[in-house]
Each structure stands twice: as C-alpha cells, then as structure tokens.
Amino acid sequence: VSPVYASTDYKVEWTEDDFMYSSEGNIIAFSDKGLEKKEKTNILVFPEGTKSINGNYSLSHSNDELRYKREFGRGKHWDKVIIPDSVKHLGYAAFYEASIDQVKLSNSLTYLGGLVFFNCGLKEVTLPDTLVNIEHNAFERNNLQEITIPKSVKTIEQYAFSRNKLHTIKVLGNPNINSKGVFHNQEVEYRPKQNPFYENHFGFNGNQGFKSIPNGLRYENGEFVFDKNVDSVELEFDYNNDMYQGKMTIYNPNKYSIDTQTDLTGQDIDEKDNKIDDLTKNIKDLENQIKDLNDKKQEDQSKIDELKKKLESCKDNGEKLKQEKSKLEEEIRDKDNKIAQLNKEIEELKNSNNDELIAEITQLKDELKRLQDENAKLKEDYSSTKWELEAEKEKTDKNENKIKEMQEKLDSLEEELAKKTKEIDDKDN
Question: Which chain positions lie within coiled-coil regions (predicted)?
Fold first, then answer.
C-alpha cells in the first residue's frame, strides 16, 4: 500500500492498513497498526479514495477491549485532521469529543452526521459548497466565532451550532433550519473596528435580536454608537424564537488595539479605497517609467555591444597592420644594408682601372638602381601601412571613448531603475 501523507514534523505516513473498514472505502476505526502510529503523531490524514468516515465504533463492538482507543474522538488530541476530497459522508460522532486545532474538510462532502464534531474546541471551520445536510449537534460546544453556511445546504438540524461564540453567521441559501435552537446559547465577544459600527456586519445575516440596548450604547439608523467613556457593554439577544440566542459583550473600539477589531466605517472604507486608487496609479506610473528605462537600457546595451564588435574588429585590423609594418621595416633594413654594401663595392671598383671592373660597375649601378626603386616602393608601402595603422588606432580610440560614454549612461539608467523599483516596493508595503 502506497503512503498518502507524510508529516515533516513527525515523519509519519498514514496508509489504508492503519484503519478498519465496514466495507470498501468506508472507515470505522483505527486498526492495531493505526493505534501504534497514533502514538507517533498528532496529525491525522485519511487515505485518498476513502468514501466515508464513521464513528461510535465502541457501541457496535462491545467485545473489543480496545474499542474506545480505536475511535478518532474520545479525548484524543489532533493538531490537524485532513479529510480527502473523495469523502462525501462524515458519520455519526466520527470525532466526538476529540480536541482538534485545525480541520480540513473534503471539497466533495455532502453529509455531516449528528455529533460529528461535538465538543472538539474548533475555532474555525470552512464548509464546502457541496454540503447538503448538517445533522443535530454537529458542531455543538466548540469555539466558533464566525460561520458561513453555503448555498448548497438544504437542512440544518437541532442544536447543530449551539454553545459556540458566534458573533457572525452568514446563511447564503434558504435551508430548512430546525426550530430547536440551532444557534442558541452563544457566549459572544465582538470587537468592531470603528465607532460607530454597522448592524449588518454581525449577527445572523445582519440581525441581532437584542432584547434591549444598555446605557453607553446607542442605535441610530442602522449603526451602533458607543459613548466616549464606555469600555464595553453586555447584551442579551434572541433572534427568531431562540434560533440565534445568547449573550454578547461588545467592546468599544476606541479603547482597544485595532488588531483585535472586526469592523470598518463607510468613511474609512472610502478613504482606504481612495488611497488604494492613488497607490495603484502611482505604481502604474512607476511601472511605465521602469518599462521605458528598461527599453532604453536595452537599446543602449545593443549599441554598446555593436561598438564592442567594431572595436574588436579594429583591434584585429590594427594587429595585422602592425605585423605588416614590422615585416616592411625588416625588408627596408635589409635593402638599406644591401645598398650600403653595393655603394662600398662601387667605390672600390672606381679606384681600379680595369675594363672588366668598369663593366661590373655598370652592372652594379643597374642593380643599385633596381634596389633603390624597390626600396622606394617599400617605403611607399610602409608609409601607406603606417597611415592605415594610425587611422585604425584613431578609430579604436573613438570607439573606446564612445563605449565608455555609453557604459556610463547605462550605469545611470540602472541606478534610476533601482530607485523606481524601490519606490514600488515601498508603496506595496
């Protein structure tokens, strides 16, 4: 059996072998292997593919000495319980009197059985929009402060959410709600964010059913207003014949930290909306400026890359010309040496009166003239090469200066870009 979950905190994996089944996919209790695993972790994850999870194993298996230990509730503590999306049915008392810090329900869940999360200490729960039936006492005796009943729910049975701390109940559909105290006996603390605060922000769909308004609190045109020096007030409420009923303590927001408050005035909302609009506009402007800077940066970078290519080409040409120059200088030196040697031989021949030597002198003069012509040509080539080298060097210097100028410009743009980005980060914060 392949594992379905691994806790990095406890390094424990839950598999199908950790559970007992009434039939395929229908879990009823822990197996012996699961009981051993429970001692190693407080995170419970049921296997994907599970169809239903049922409780009250102890009543139907009285001969099992471990029947109470095999149940998922009965005083067991869970940091987290995860119900896979394959589960559609949570049966009667499945987690009865467990201590649960956090629960993740199946997104395919249609049925919550009676007493399923009775007295579990839950502070919050999200009901999926597939849920149809919530049976009696399903969430009784928890610490829920807010609950949203999805539009899909058709029935809510008696005492389903009684004895919680519900200051806000939102019912999105039109379910059949049992007349016997579905939301009764609430012990509520409500901390609005502003004074005055709106009646439609709390209660049962914006209805409170206060029996009376005590001194220190006034009701005016859909708003409640605290007197300046009042810390809090206590009220009894009963909406719709005991359906939503209990006691509520409301705290003056002017006396307490905003971190614990739960409401906003219309004026504050408008001011925040205006600030958000201004910030959004400023952020948009900065984003456009950053885009322009990035485009310009890209354009300048392209120019720099092109100039670098030209510079490399000029350097290559300059190196070739240097080699040619060195070669020509060496040839000129050789020719000059030969000319000097020939001139010396001519002078020696002039000093002799030999006809053969005169003929040789004439020949040498012809050779000398040829060498002088070649040397003149070499010097001409040398001058031309030297000029080309100087021209390439001048071009290289210009390109290097231009690259330096463009790089400085690019650095400036990057500084401006960083500044704009920081402005956006500051505004987001």
Answer: 269-423
